[in-house]
Every structure is written in structure tokens, then in C-alpha cells.
# Entry
Amino acid sequence: MINKDGVHINIKQLYFDLTLELTDNLQRSFYDKLADGLQKITEASSLAIYQCDPWTSCYFKRAESFIAEETFADQFVMDENESAQSAIQNMVSPEERIQVLQTEVDCNGLIIAATRVNEDIKQDTWNIVAQETEKLLRVFVSRNEAEDDKRKLSFLFNLSAKLNGLYTKAEILQELKHALEVTYPEFSYELLLSQDFEAVGILPVQLIAYADDMTKRVSSQAFMTGDIQIENRWNDRTTCIYAPLRGDQGVYGVLKIVAGENIHFPEDELSFVSRFSNVVGKAIENASLYERSNRLVNDLKWMNEVTQQLNSNLELEDIVTLVRDRTIEVSEATQLGVVFINESYDQSFQVRPGSTDYFFSEQGTVFVEYIVETMLQEKDIIFTGDMASRTDLTAYCSVMAIPMLQGGKLEGIIIAMHEASYHFSLDTLKLVQSFIQHSSLAFSNALLKAELEKTVITDYLTQLYTRSYVDEKVISHMDSGECGALVFFDIDNFKQVNDTYGHHIGDEVLIQVAQIIERHLTGEEIACRWGGEEIAVYLPESGIKEGLEIAKSIREQVAKESEPTVTLSCGIASWTQNTPDSARALFARSDQALYQAKQTGKNKVVLANQPYDTSHGLVT
# Structure
């Protein structure tokens, strides 16, 4: 028996010699010499080397060395839950036992040694075999991978050179067919092409569906996402690979490769198929470039322009108008709707002002309800040229409904429609979809901005403006305007209302008064909750007379409509450009007039800076 050091020296010498021979590309000779050398070093009665085929997960014997007779099977399949030891033990006679070395290198190999029952390979020896074999196989596998990569790169280079010299799609597809027959002769294949693609009868061809449930198919997903897809079809026990024919500017179809039963595509092969299909896709793109170049250039200019507009901090109404006009411009839609959805709260929707008239009609509202319900369930594009096959809720045949998604949440839908069948092309869909993706963020930002601005300047209870907002408006207007009037209202005996009915009724009274005041406002007039039960109304470009009229009308209306009944005391002050004044002084005069109204009996209107008499200073 060779000692540990001797084993180490022998195996190192064997593996050094084998490494020198790797350049000969004689894999069979390499494995034979490896098996013979290991059999002698380990003193096993039989030794075999297996390698797993990644396509079938089957272990194939690459080489075997034995003293008496061949011991091991040529191939075997190992169950997922089965160990190599138990899977192989039945290959040898009962008088023999096996020891298994399973390599961790990418080759997924097994080294199996059989010995007599009373003779084990020493663990030290087996450990040395394991360590040194891993080193050798890493070199060997690395070399083979490099050779395989070189072969595949050479194939792709030659294919690309051939395809780039072709000018028609028919010639490209003919070369594609030849390349497939050389590369995967045992598989079948077909092309899945878009509706606006010339279907040349060189390979079996099907059209890709873009609408309805058809978009859920694996082939359609490959086309829409541009990523390779795998489908295991249990009914006919096949594996289908869907490789998008992708160029630099889009996906032009899908190559479908159908493999037989128990075939598994390794990751490196999927990568090769992806690169292969990309070469074909780019060639198709180049052949299509001339006929589409003008449109592509115009589309890029268009997208750049609208993106700049979207990024220019537009208000919500401006964004709606931009989306409507630009989408109609590129799609030639006759109807365009912008619909916002409150998915997080109650899934209600709102057709935004700026949408075309159809969406505000009775029929349009019903159709929008259908689109929203469908979109909430599927959150996917609705794209069809035959809407009648889906629903009879509209007479429009061509429909593009594109979701506005932000963070996975459906925030809205852009709906483009046309009377003609199949009016919208796939290129149009892609361009509009890209535009909507840019618009979604602009919409979200504008909505958030509007909500924040409204929250900052709105009183949560009355929904009137806040005092600070009106302060700013008055100060700004006094710098630029001609005149203005400020009216202070105070609910009489409001504490008594709270004490008698409770604060929740007091809040209701405040809301009632605020709503009555808002109904009396027109144009640029603004109202705010000044504090507590006080409400202020500012009337730009108005004088004391206009302030008196609106105060009198509101006071009378509150006394009639409020429940429980309350009255108002009012103080009015005004300013003109011809008189030195300030916002602070204006507020003080209005407040003083209000105080006078409260002190002299309430339910009155008092004009600031007027003598106290019934003809001028006080109105009952």
C-alpha cells in the first residue's frame, strides 16, 4: 500500500502530465489516462469517471479502468432525493463496495471507485484525490469553457457578418433557418411575428396577439418585455424557448425553439440563444431602418420635446392638456380621455377636465367604468382594433388603454380611441406607452404638489382657506391693486351653542356658515377661517359698498338656514391706493368694527372708520 506522501507525489505527477496534454484537445484520451492513473494510485479494483449532461441531467461514463472486467453502467439518472452512493451501489457485485467522489466543479462530475468489501481506500488517500482532482478539473473545465465560448463567438461573428450583408427580411430569415438547422438539428422552431411585419414563408409563422387574454401568453411576454422566456408544456411533454428578436430600438418578433422530452436548457446555452436571437434581431432592424428612419428620428425629437415640457414643473391642468394634445398628435385618435383612479381608497375614478367630449357623455361614462374595472383587475394594457369582440359598450373599434403606474399602484389610465378598425399600430402603442410612463411621474408629482398646497392653505374643518393664505393675498394685492374690502364675520353666542349642543354640533354650525359664505363668493373673492368661530372674506378691487352688500346678504342667509339657528356679527374695512395704508392696519380696522358690532347687540354689520349711527355705521 502506498503511503500518504507517495500518493500525493504520484497524483501530482499524474495531473501535471495530464495538464501538459490539455492543448491536444483529446478529451477521450484525457479521461482514459485520468481513470487509469487514479485506479493505480488508489489501488481500486475498478474506477470510473462520469460527467453529467446538463441538457438531460443524465450521468454518462467518460472513462473506466478495471483489473478484471468492466464494472459500471454506461449511464444512469440519479433521483433528486437519491445519493450517488445508493444510486451506484447496485452496479457492482455484493463482494464489492464503492466510494464516490462528487466534484464541485461546473462539470458536475463523479469519480467512482470499487474495492473489495474488506479493502477500503484510505480516507487520507481519497482526500488527496479529491483536492488534486478539483484543481485539475478546474483547469480542464476552464479550458473547455474557453474553447466553447470561442466556438460560439466565432459562430455569432460569422452569422452577424452574413446577416449584416443582407438587405431584405426574406434573405435574413433564410439565413436564420440555415443557422438553426446547423446549431439545433434535433429541435423544431417557428417565428412569432408582429402584425405589421412581413410574414415571409420561410419558417413556420404565427402572429403575436397584443390584446385580451392573449397578452398573458409566454410568447407575448417575451415580445413585450424583450426577455427570453421558458415554457414547460406538460401536455405534449416539450420545452419551449421564446427568444425575442431584439434590436437596439425594439423587438421585431420571437423565435420559438421546441425541444423534446427531458431536455433542460443550461444557463450558458440560454445566454447563447439570447445572443443568437439578438444578432438576428439587429439584422432585421437594419433591414427595416431605411423605411422607418424618418419616423424614428421624428419620434425621438417628439419624445425629447414632450419630456422637456413634462419636466418643466407644469400644473396638473397643463399636464392633462399636454398629454391629450400630444397623444392625439402621434396616434391620430379621435377621442382621448385622462382618467384618475383612487385605487388606495375606494377605487373611484374621475375623468379629468381636458378630456374630449365623449368621455363626459353618458355612453362614455359607462365605457370608462368598464375600462377602469378591467384595468383594476389586470393592470395591463388594453390594445385592440376590434373592441366589439370584447364589449358592445362603445361604437369605437380601436382602443388603446394604457395604465399610469407609480410604485405598482394604478393611479390613472390614458384612453385613446378611433372609429376605424385596427387604426393604432404597435409602433404607436410603444411610443404612447413610453410617453405615458414619463407622464405618470409628472402626474404624480403634480397631484402631490396640489394636495400639499391645498393642505397647507386649507382649514381642515371648514375647507376654507387658512388665515396665512389670505394674509399673503391681501398683502400682495395691496402692492399691486387699486382697492379692496375686508369683512370679518363672528358667530354670535358660539360658546353657548357648544355648551348646549356639544362641540360636534358647533363644528357643524361652522361648516354650515362656511358653505353659505362660499356660495356668495364670485371671481377672485376668497374666504378663510380667521380663528375659532371667526371667518374673513376679502374682496379685491371692491369698496366698502360691495363689502356691505355681501355682508348683509350672508348675515341674512345664515339666520334663515343655520340649524340650530345662529346669527353673525360683521365688521368691514376697506382701502384704496390713494390713501396710505397697510394690511396690518386693515385687519385692525375690520377687527375693531367687528368688536363694535359684538358690543352693541350682535347680529349687526359695522363699517370701520364711520360715525356710529343707523344711516352709516350700523346696519341691522
Notes: The mean pLDDT is 81. The longest helix spans residues 267-310. The CA atoms of residues 43 and 556 lie 115 Å apart.
